[in-house]
Design a protein that fits this description.
Helices cover 34% and strands 10% of the residues. It is α+β, with helices and mostly antiparallel strands and 96 residues long. Strands 1-2 form a two-stranded antiparallel ribbon. The N and C termini lie far apart (27 Å).
Length: 96
C-alpha cells in the first residue's frame, strides 16, 4: 500500500513516533515526503498521493503536528510562522 516505514525515514522526522501511531495516514504521507526529499524514490501512485496531500495542506494553510500523548497522534493545525513545509517542529522543552 504505502512505502515501508524504515528507520532511515523515521530518523528524518522531527518526532519519535510511538508504535500505536505508526498506521496513520499522515505518517505515511510524511514518510513519502521524507523519501522524496532524500531522493529515495517513490512509486507513481505515492508521488500522486503526496502531491494531493500537500495540496490539501496548502489549501487550508496548515501543517501536521504530532502529540504522542493523544489517541490519534497526528493533527492538522493552522500554519504559524516558523513552521516547515508540512510539519511544525517540536517546541523547545517539548517531548519529541
Amino acid at each position: 500500500m504505502f512505502p515501508e516505514l524504515d528507520e532511515q525515514v523515521l530518523a528524518r522526522l522531527p518526532w519519535e513516533i510511538h508504535e500505536q501511531h505508526r498506521n496513520s495516514y499522515h505518517l505515511a504521507m510524511l514518510s513519502c515526503a521524507v523519501r522524496d526529499q532524500a531522493g529515495l524514490g517513490l512509486r507513481w501512485v505515492d508521488r500522486h498521493r503526496l502531491a494531493s496531500w500537500r495540496g490539501s495542506l496548502r489549501e487550508v494553510n496548515a501543517v501536521v503536528v504530532y502529540d504522542w500523548k493523544t489517541p490519534d497522534g497526528f493533527y492538522v493545525v493552522p500554519r504559524l510562522e516558523g513552521d516547515g513545509d508540512v510539519t511544525r517542529p517540536p517546541m523547545v522543552g517539548e517531548d519529541p
